[in-house]
Backbone:
């Protein structure tokens, strides 16, 4: 997220059937993951990053 919006993710909450919530200093970005809220098969995906913040296959990937 740092690359896209200039913010570093401080934490997250994940309930795979309900929400993915990313926390920033004083903000929170929530993606609904329930079937009724989704417009297609995937609502969000995350890709791991290295120490510099660049995407890395070593960081793993999650699709929800």
Residues:
């Amino acid at each position: 997220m740092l690359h896209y919006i200039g913010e570093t993710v401080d934490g997250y909450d994940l309930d795979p059937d309900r929400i993915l919530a990313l926390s920033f200093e004083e903000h929170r970005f929530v993606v609904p993951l329930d079937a009724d809220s989704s417009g297609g098969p995937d609502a969000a995906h995350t890709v791991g990053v290295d120490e510099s913040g660049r995407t890395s296959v070593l960081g793993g990937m999650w699709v929800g």
Notes: Helices lie at 2-5.
